[in-house]
Amino acid sequence: MPHTILIAEDDQDITTLVKLYLESSGYRVLCAPDGATALDLARTESIDMAVLDIMMPRMNGYELTRELRAISNMPILILSAKNTDNDKILGLELGADDYLTKPFNPLEIIARVKANLRRFYQLNPTSPVLPGSNVLLLGPLRLDLDAMSLTKNGAPISLTPTEYKILSCLMRAPGRIFTKVQLYEAVSGTYFESDENTMMVHISKLRDKIEDDPRHPCFIKTVRGLGYKIEAVETN
Fold it and tell me: What are the residue ranges of helices labelled H in 72-194?
């Protein structure tokens, strides 16, 4: 399953060029012409890495970096014409992992994307596995996306199609908070206010299956007032 890269850039020519090279390297690419649109995509899509410009309308790259870091630990590469040391330091202090100045060699972007993703997965072994595999790993949980099957410490766990979709969505982005609306839209593509309690029931049943103590869940955590997230724990 290819990694998804988010490009936030208001220069259409640069967006087209970077998108072409990333897709040629096997990545799935989502594009946003401004920071606000990019943040909306990050909240609704499973993003593995972001490539951001600084000077964008509606929300600049510095603000976007701060907002992204609040909801995700994904690698962030700033791509900007601002090339002073202070610009670079500010971007890195706000949470960016890398900084590349314009003009740039597209091949260097590919190399940096690969290096940042490789480093991220080495430091986050509980995150989804590297490309070439259709299996998501989280502590003792192993979700096979091809077989739509789940095991915990090697023991099979039966899931309904809806439970599988919810767990798949959560396991693709460990630590990320998903609202009930986002989870329901990921499952069915639509959402109505009456669906909120239905999602709570699905989460409850999923906890019954994967948690050692569903009343005190270790994997699927409720984030009060926001939604749900999944975390890795080691169990015997």
Answer: 85-93, 106-123, 161-171, 180-188
Distances in Å between the alpha carbon of 190 and those of 30, 46, 180, 181?
21, 17, 12, 9
Q: Using an 8 Å Cβ cutoff, are 141 and 210 in contact?
A: yes
Q: Classify burial at 52, counting beta carbons within 10 Å of its beta carbon; exposed 0-12, middle 13-18, buried 19 or more.
A: buried
Q: Nearest 5 degrees, angle CA 212-CA 222-CA 214?
A: 20
pLDDT, tens only, 40-57 = 998 888 888 999 999 998
What are the structural domains, with CATH classification, of the chain?
Answer: 4-123 (3.40.50.2300), 135-230 (1.10.10.10)
* pLDDT tens-digit map of 79-121: 988 878 888 888 888 888 888 888 889 999 999 998 888 877 6
Whether this prediction's pTM lies above 0.85 is answered by no
Residue 113: which of 87, 61, 75 has the closest Cα?
Answer: 75
Is residue 95 within 8 A of residue 10, CB to CB? The reply is no
Separation CA 16–CA 233 (nearest Å): 41
